[in-house]
């Protein structure tokens, strides 16, 4: 494959990713938040839980507005914060 053709395929791939809602990442983030809530992270790790919920809410708004790349990034942030909260809650017990 020529470098030009490879470049075109890459551009199509990247643009395709930016136009689809980040369904899997949103699901992953919601599952991480639910697991953290079950571990009582709202009480044991309030700061990362607050951030996780703020990021998922922002991502939901961005999806409604069609800002899928930003939504994916914020869903990833929500997941990371929820995992941090879960880890903190599990070690605090």
Number of separate strands: 0
Instruction: Compute the CA-based radius of gyration.
Output: 17 Å
What overall form do the CA principal axes indicate?
elongated
Low-confidence stretches: none
**Gap between N and C termini, in Å?**
56 Å
Which structural class do you get from the secondary structure elements?
Answer: mainly alpha
Please tell me about this protein's structure.
The protein has helices spanning 3-18, 23-38, 41-44, 46-64, 68-92. By secondary structure, the protein is an all-alpha fold. It has one domain (21-92). α2 runs antiparallel to α4 (46-64) and α4 (46-64) packs antiparallel against α5. The relative contact order is 0.18. The mean pLDDT is 90.
What's the short story on this structure?
This protein is mainly α.
Give a quick set of tags describing it.
single chain, 93 residues, 86% helix, 5 helices, mainly alpha, 0% strand
Write the layout of secondary structure elements.
Blueprint: H1 3-18, H2 23-38, H3 41-44, H4 46-64, H5 68-92
């Amino acid at each position: 494959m020529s470098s030009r053709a490879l470049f075109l395929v890459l551009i199509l791939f990247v643009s395709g990713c930016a136009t689809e809602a980040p369904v899997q990442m949103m699901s992953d983030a919601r599952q991480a938040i639910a697991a953290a809530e079950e571990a009582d992270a709202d009480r044991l790790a309030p700061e990362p839980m607050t951030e996780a919920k703020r990021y998922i809410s922002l991502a939901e708004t961005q999806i409604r507005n069609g800002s899928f790349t930003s939504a994916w990034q914020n869903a990833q942030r929500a997941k990371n914060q929820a995992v941090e909260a879960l880890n903190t809650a599990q070690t605090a017990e």
